[in-house]
Every structure is written in C-alpha cells, then in structure tokens.
Amino acid sequence: MTATPSRRTAVAPLTTEDAELLVGAAHAAAEEAGATVSVSVLDAGGHLLAFRRDDRAVLISGETSTRKAFTALQLDAPTADLADAVRPDGPFHTLPTALDRPLLFIAGGLPVHRDGRLVGAIGVGGGAPAQDHAFAAGALDTLNALR
After folding, report:
1. Which of 31, 62, 107, 134 has CB atoms 3.0–4.6 Å from 38's, for a disulfide?
2. In terms of C-beta density within 10 A (0-12 exposed, 13-18 middle, 19 or more buried), how is residue 95 classed?
3. Residue 9 lies in a domain
4. For residues 134 and 139, what is the distance between their CA atoms, to the nearest angstrom?
5. 82: exposed, middle or buried (Cβ count in 10 Å: 0-12, 13-18, 19+)
6. CATH code assigned at 123
7. Nearest to 133 by CA among 97, 109, 103, 105
8. Domain-embedded: residue 10
9. Residue 108 located in a structural domain
10. How many domains, in total, are found in the chain?
11. 42: domain range?
C-alpha cells in the first residue's frame, strides 16, 4: 500500500495591507490613551512590512518595537510571556546574547497567526510595557475581526 502524501493547505501571507491596518490600529489605540509609540510589523521571514514612529515618541521606541516583533516571531510567543524565561534562573537565560540579531523580552510583541500558522509579528514600543502589549493586542483583534 502506498502512503498518501499529506496535503497542506496554503495560508495567505501577511500582506502590506494587513501590516498597515495593524500599524494604524495600534497607533489609534495609543493616541486615544495619550501615548506616543512606534509600531513595527514583520512578515514570517522577519522582514519589515510596515513601520511608523509617532513624531513625539522617543527615538529608541523604533528599535524596541522592531526587536519586540522579532522576538515574538522567532519564539512564536507574546514577549510579555517570555520575560521570566530570561531571568538568571530561567531556561532561556543566555538566549538574548546567543543570536546575531538581538531579542527583547519586554511586553509589546505579539506573533500574528492565520489559520493556525505563524505569518508575522507586531511590536509596539514607547509606552509602558503593559500599554504596548495592549496596543498590539488591540491591533491584532482588529485584523482578526476583518478576516
């Protein structure tokens, strides 16, 4: 008996339109809360699809938003859930320094899934970590509501 090859259903990638929607939704939430932030959206390969820094946001927020998105993408987990893993007694203690591209274990990065598959990530930086996480989560909820 011949084994039947498994059939994989193709999943649409994260598009520039999706990325712009995520950026816009996160910025709108931040503006409503009186926060100035940067938002980065990466595709599944870790490439920047969209970025926006509020002109009043601290300059480093651009870097932190991108690193948060990259971290969420690489570990397929919200950065808020990973902070304890890199403490001195945590299982990923050396991970932040083990890679060429720096990771950032501060709340504000979320993976983006479509049909159960990882298609990208969003990172928000510039507000308090809990705010950044909420802005990213709200943007993701907006995207998911339109699917």
Report:
1. 62
2. middle
3. no
4. 9
5. buried
6. 3.30.450.150
7. 109
8. no
9. yes
10. 1
11. 16-145
